[in-house]
Amino acid sequence: MRKVFHNPLLKPSRSLYRALLMGFMMILVLGYIIFNEQEKYQNAIFDKEVSKIQSSIQERLNHFKMMSESLSNFVSFQDHVREDEWQAYTIKLLETEKRDEKGLNLSFVKFVHQFEIEQFKNILLSDWSIDKSVTPPTLNLSPNKEHYCIVKYSTPQALKGLDLCNTPKINAILMDHQHDSINIVESNSQMNSLNQGNLIYFVSKTNYFSPRIEPYKINLRGWTIVSLSLQQFFKGLASNDIILQVHLDAGNQKIIYASTSEPVDLSVKFDIPLLIGDSKVIARIIPNRSHDIFKTSRIIYVGLGLCVLLTILIGHLVWSVTLSRRRAQSLAENIQQDLYMARLRNRSIIENIPGVVYRMVQKDDEWIVEYMSDYIREVTGFPATKYIGKSRFFSLQFDPPEIDDLKNALSISSEIGSYNLEYQVRHVDGSIRWLSEQGQIVTQKNSQKFVAAIIFDITDSKEKNKRMQTLYAALHNAVEGISILTNEFHLIEVNQAFLNLFNLNDNTIIG
Prior knowledge:
The chain has helices at about 15-75, 85-95, 115-125, 170-175, 230-235, 300-305, 310-350, 375-380, 390-395, 400-415, 460-475, 495-500, 505-510, and strands at about 105-115, 145-155, 180-185, 200-205, 220-230, 240-245, 255-260, 270-275, 280-285, 355-365, 365-370, 420-425, 430-445, 450-455, 485, 490-495. It has 5 domains: about 15-45 and about 300-350; about 60-235, CHASE domain (Beta-Lactamase); about 235-295, no CATH class; about 355-460, PAS domain (Beta-Lactamase, 2-Layer Sandwich); about 480-510, no CATH class. Helix content is about 40%, strand content about 25%. A hairpin with a 2-residue loop joins strand 10 and strand 11 (about 365-370). The longest helix has about 60 residues, at about 15-75. By secondary structure, the protein is an alpha+beta fold. It contains 13 helices and 16 strands. The chain is extended, with a radius of gyration of 36 Å.
């Protein structure tokens, strides 16, 4: 038999076997590290997408709830809403939405008793009197019914005149006086005729301005309803790397929405239980294994083959660089997220303050407005854009004495750092508004001064105080003896004529 390695020079040395063994072990260790880190990276991406979808769902629920409440406030604060006013306001709301308008319906439902249906019918049909080309709705009225829930206005024209009291689930919600707002999922609704699939409703109660109606004692004027198909609600929540499935409940696993129709791998999933009204919905988040980010890349196998030629030092260097990059990326993402949340919180706070928030900077002995919140429209009748970039003293409708008072307040506050001031401005409708302003002056290192301030409308308070002073003066100057008592017949105020009449001292009888 021929011996191939008879010559010791041709026989592989032990160092070669050790090198091969070390290279094999290095491949195993490095391969394990690469696969393990890839799994951690995939899990981190998946967890990030889960958090993003969770926050997006809650944000959309809050968004459409606020939309319904905004619609309710618009209806509540007016004695009568005309058709053109309704259309203008709903168009403004829909302009902020990037969804297909066909999937988003805005409606105003009026509660009408059986004995007032004729009056309401005339009011409803009068909205069509301007445009004769529009066909009035047909009201299917039953004399045996006690009440109706009639759609007076709606972005889909076909819903006008529809009686939602015929839909048991919606009728039960509209008759529930314990809640001012609620959202529900409804699949068998007359309103569902315009959309395929289930609908989610956001219902808000509007105020009632008339006396309570006997014998029903219904203390509400109507409802505003924002309805949206579940397809539209969950559309766009998940990226291409994630599959989103929505189940009506955890029991029957009925899928009411899926971002893809392809078969999915359920080995990794995350379920988000949602309670919409009395309907349980499960949002299931699944990684998309067909995308590169969630599958093993070929380059990993190529890299493992090349690892035989690499040294431990190079491998360690590559690993160190990768780890540093990931830490830097994670740090950058955290910083961006913190900045975003800070801006979101500040914007939310400013938008919910019942006053005008503004900032101005001093340039060449003039105070120029840099920022002003939109609430200024409620105070002066003009939008914030009218004042931004202009002088603080001449942008608002000040009287000359008010300008001097504000200039003096800013001059004094430069030393003490803050100021409080009350003054008058003229609204665009000609009325006078009393304002209370509180500001803080800050001087930067470059000696640049700026003011951060907030303005409150105290017109109502001023008028109430004026009326109280007038009533108080009238009480004490009256010739007749006058006394004011509580429900328990305790004296809380008397005038001088009353004291003189009974020869009393007010310190001994009050209370």
